[in-house]
Design brief:
Helix content: 25-40%
Number of strands: 22
Largest sheet: 12 strands, mixed
């Protein structure tokens, strides 16, 4: 029996090591600035306020309710921390947990740091971990993140600084999900006193403390002077909302702001030619796609979805809209994610086939549809290209452009017909992609904005998250992605490349593959 346990444990660890290696090899970065890996040089001053300009405001700041990366970016690894953290190569490292042990295939034990306090003075310990996860897993909380952790049946306090996570089944990517923003540990005092307030006033253990949120204008954080780890170089960071692309860039160019991590691809040449700006580029884990709300007419008919799929010239979008930033996607999973397959092929560009399918669906005389997009410049441009392409098969497209917060609300409520969207995989594992985007349980805020439901797909996704044999797991993902493609749930467009423009007087920041901005080592000259 002991030998069997050891074999299971070893197999499990091999899966995890394999996962980490795949991600490590995949997530290479490139930068046209000298910023990456830069550290504080002799004579460079510490302190100052870092100004980050952004297209949109956050929607909320409670990690149990955040469903978009722009909001998570404000607090992830800044205000909040988890038990573990991904490094630059997306390899999982200790953070609030010093070490962990796979006791058996459904029991994970974490030894916690004993020198950490929350921003409100509450001690960090095993009870704090339990309180956070108990709240997340309680159905009455109504967290859209709950399904991501539903394999956890109990959080067990062993002693003050030891906690066990008991699972309903083996779950290979547990560390990767704990390392994402959803794994943030929240102050138990804040949870007990006023949990609703966390949506606008986060309380964590991180290197920065929440200062203020002026809605629609800016969110500010200050350096945590009582931080348990290496304190940040800067005193303060302000995330300023500047909706106009040209204004954000002008602020970087003049030195009024330091970092713009939402750069239009049309501005690359201007940034590279500038004396005062640098351009940071890194391959990402996200995929951009055109999605159908499969519950709304006419997209409840697979023939209509297939017709649209045949009528979109995807390569023209990569070149014309994205200036060849990023690569042409074949599925809704990036090649950088464990579970990706290049064997699943999207629909060919074929207008005759598209017209024939529309005729069979009863729309021979044309069709009127609505296409929703957020107010990002490239996405509006993409919507206009799609509008033009679909005219070729007699489909008239009305473009709906929404400010980001309203956009998220609309898709969370299922009010859209067709949508330009993306999925920023936060863990590098296929489960985060497949379970959240396509499982019936994830319909709505959790990520399934296709409102897609297929019992066979659900079954395979559940099997894949429990499979400890990596080869079998990869095969399951390939099979499930093929079914999703056969059902024409979405049209894959682009594998992301993340861009940031920065003032040349700032160094030491980086973007991870999930597009989170890391500022611990920032130095302002």
């Amino acid at each position: 029996m002991e030998r069997k346990k050891r074999v299971i444990r070893n197999a499990f660890l091999l899966v995890l090591i394999g996962l980490m290696l795949v991600i490590t090899q995949a997530c290479s970065t490139k930068s046209t600035s000298s910023n990456e890996g830069a550290s504080k040089k002799e004579g460079e001053k510490q302190g100052g306020t870092l100004t980050v300009v952004r297209l949109s405001d956050a929607t909320k700041l409670d990690p149990h309710f955040i469903t978009d990366i722009p909001s998570a970016n404000i607090i992830y690894q800044k205000v909040y921390q988890g038990l573990v953290v991904p490094d630059k190569d997306f390899k999982v490292q200790p953070l609030l947990a010093k070490e962990w042990t796979v006791v058996n295939d459904t029991t994970w034990e974490f030894k916690l740091r004993d020198d950490v306090t929350f921003h409100d003075g509450t001690p960090f310990n095993a009870e704090a971990v339990k309180t956070t996860f108990d709240r997340l897993l309680d159905p009455n909380t109504g967290s859209p993140q709950r399904t991501k952790f539903e394999m956890i049946t109990e959080v067990k306090v062993i002693d003050e600084y030891t906690v066990q996570l008991l699972l309903a089944y083996p779950y290979a990517p547990l560390l990767s999900i704990l390392a994402s923003q959803e794994g943030s540990i929240i102050s138990p005092k804040a949870l007990a006193e006023n949990p609703e307030k966390l949506a606008e006033h986060p309380v964590g253990t991180g290197p920065f403390v929440f200062e203020a949120w002026k809605s629609g204008q800016e969110i500010s954080l200050t350096k945590n002077d009582n931080y348990w780890g290496k304190k940040p170089n800067i005193d303060r960071v302000v995330f300023k909302v500047v909706p106009e692309d040209a204004t954000r860039l002008a602020m970087i160019e003049t030195g009024e702001a330091h970092i713009n991590d939402q750069v239009p691809v049309t501005e690359i040449e201007r940034i590279e030619a500038s004396d005062t700006m640098g351009l940071y580029r890194t391959e990402g884990l996200a995929v951009e796609y055109l999605g159908f709300n499969t519950k709304k007419k006419p997209f409840d008919d697979v023939k209509v979805r297939k017709a649209i799929s045949h009528a979109i010239e995807r390569a023209a979008i990569i070149k014309g809209v994205y200036n060849n930033v990023g690569t042409l996607a074949n599925v809704a999973m990036s090649p950088k994610v464990l579970g990706y397959s290049d064997k699943v092929k999207p629909y060919d560009y074929d207008l005759n086939e598209a017209k024939q399918l529309l005729k069979e669906a009863g729309y021979e005389n044309g069709l009127e549809i609505k296409l929703l997009t957020s107010d990002r410049k490239e996405r509006i441009n993409m919507a206009e290209v799609i509008q033009s392409q679909l005219k070729g098969i007699g489909v008239n497209v009305e473009i709906q452009v929404m400010e980001y917060g309203a956009f998220i609300e609309m898709i969370n409520n299922g009010e859209h017909e067709m949508v330009i969207n993306g999925w920023g995989n936060a863990t590098g594992d296929g489960d985060y992609n497949q379970y959240n985007l396509f499982h019936t349980a994830s319909q709505g805020p959790a990520g399934n904005h296709f409102y897609y439901s297929n019992p066979e797909v659900d079954k395979k996704i559940e099997a894949a998250r429990q499979e400890t044999d990596e080869a079998k797991r990869l095969k399951l993902y390939e099979e499930v992605m093929q079914i999703e493609m056969d059902d024409a749930v979405y049209i894959p467009i682009r594998n992301y490349e993340h861009l940031a423009a920065h003032s040349k007087n700032v160094s030491g920041f980086w973007l991870n593959a999930a597009n989170y901005l890391m500022i611990d080592d920032v130095v302002i000259k």
